[in-house]
Prior knowledge:
Elements: E1 2-5, H1 14-23, E2 29-31, E3 35-36, H2 45-51, E4 61-62, E5 64-66, H3 70-82, E6 87-92, H4 97-100, H5 112-132, E7 137-145, H6 152-160, E8 167-173, H7 184-193, E9 199-201, H8 207-216, E10 222-225, H9 227-231, H10 235-239, H11 247-264, H12 268-282, H13 290-298, H14 302-315
The chain binds flavin mononucleotide.
Flavin mononucleotide (FMN) is lined by residues 6-11, 33-34, 64, 91, 93-94, 141, 170, 201-204, 225-228.
Amino acid sequence: MKLSFAPLEGIADYTFRNAHKRIFGGADDYYTPFIAANPSCSLKEKEKREVAPGLNPGISLVPQILANRAYAFVSTAQRLAALGYREVNLNLGCPSPAVTAHGRGAGLLRDQDRLDRFLWELFEELARAGREGAVPAVSVKTRSGFADRSETEGLVRILNRYPFSLVIVHPRLRTQLYAGSADWDSFAVFYGNCKKKPAYNGDIRSPEDAGRLMARFPGTEQIMIGRGAVANPALFRMLKGGRPPGTGEMSAFHDELLSARMAEIPLFEKAAGKMKELWFYWSGLFEEPEPYIRRIRKACTEEDYRAAVEALFGECTLKGDAG
Ligand SMILES: Cc1cc2nc3c(=O)[nH]c(=O)nc-3n(C[C@H](O)[C@H](O)[C@H](O)COP(=O)(O)O)c2cc1C
């Protein structure tokens, strides 16, 4: 079973994945948050850092591209190929209104004829570029449709027409955003009809969830996990038979991320804001953490924040079945 860390914009940046790999490990590869392909095909400074090989040492990394123009996608893919990447991933899943309004991300699922034309152009352009130099393989991460479950079969037929190296499915509709639960019946349509077995993504939070998935879809060869692996950074390791997270590991992970955030945003309030977002995920790991989490959330100075975090790690025990 191959295990992939999902792209998580705003959370799983290169500092997160470096610390995660070193302290917990278990993920076979990591996907970058989306890189928005733009008409000038340039990368923003933040995007350059995400894909800089020197900042991702020893990490098997797949850059993800958000695009609605074949030319912009392929030019960005070529830039990434020049950095050594052999696979890039097309984002057909981002549900954010700012993205879908421009027909990007899950917005491309709204009109299947348009999606088909876009993919045809993309692979034509890629083949043309491939005659002149190296181009990476293209995988895709998609939702199961835009607004209705009846769209799924048509979507699978379209994806089957193109030589994607991998189809990763997050079986929610765009209109669901992250509400409700992942729809395994929609995943079954991909599982039963995709040319190659699709990878599964969505709501896997424990080894038991993965076990249930494998019982229903035993041919699944790859699982991608996002929020579950933020909430329990040892989840990949546990899925490979390893141990749950330890307090020392969580504390080291926290300290490394805080230092990285402080180096990036020297303003404590901003760095702390990002850390407090992570505490939203991590609170479920501990027995009765509420008063400690409240103290962390309320901390306004670096000193108070560090004292609150130290109190939590010193006084709260991790749940036996952490995660
Ligand atoms: C904060 C956040 C940021 C995300 N950023 C991206 C992204 O950049 N690209 C992408 O394809 N999906 C993105 N996703 C979706 C996740 O990769 C994943 O598909 C989704 O969270 C469902 O999987 P999970 O239940 O394992 O988290 C994001 C999700 C969240 C919650």
